[in-house]
Amino acid sequence: MIIECLIGMAALTPATLSDYQTCKWYQQAAEVTVEHHHAFELYLPEKEYLWAIGTTFCESSGRTDAVSVTGARGIWQYVRRSENWLEEKLNEDFDVTSAYDSTYMTSWLLRNDTNPKRHWYESKHCWNKNMPKNSYKLHY
């Protein structure tokens, strides 16, 4: 996925500058997480792509080998307790350092948890950026 930021107006105003800066942030996040976009496309609905890009950028800088001070691992930063719960629930073994396994786990949460994004609320201040409509174009 490539994110192209569009302004579409002759002069920047404070509102359009903010929109442009938000789009540029997502553009940077997309570049950092580009190697995982196939996993996002495979397991997540299209409406969640920007959220996935932003969240994995904030959580791990897109690094599959990322480990937090609390022991959370992978691009989605799953803690061992969540990993074990999902493995038991889905009767599968997962490798949270695999972008595909962890994105599959995330897709299951998005489909089945009543409040799935709560798992990433600690980093919400980073990824909760609303991309203004018509200020960007997503290319695959």
Question: How would you describe what is shown here?
Answer:
The protein has 140 residues and is mostly helical. Helices cover 48% and strands 6% of the residues. It contains six helices and two strands, in the order βααααααβ. The chain has helices at residues 14-32, 37-43, 49-60, 80-90, 99-112, 124-127; strands spanning 2-5, 136-139. It is elongated and about 55 Å long.
Q: Could you give the topology of this structure?
A:
Blueprint: E1 2-5, H1 14-32, H2 37-43, H3 49-60, H4 80-90, H5 99-112, H6 124-127, E2 136-139
Antiparallel strand pairs: 1-2
Biggest sheet overview: 2 strands, antiparallel
Quote the beta fraction.
Answer: 5-15%
Biggest β-sheet: strands ordered side by side in the sheet: 1-2
The helix-and-strand class reads mainly alpha
Brief write-up:
This protein has helices at residues 14-32, 37-43, 49-60, 80-90, 99-112, 124-127; strands spanning 2-5, 136-139. It is mainly α and 140 residues long.
Key attributes of the depicted protein:
6 helices; mainly alpha; 140 residues; 48% helix; two-stranded antiparallel ribbon
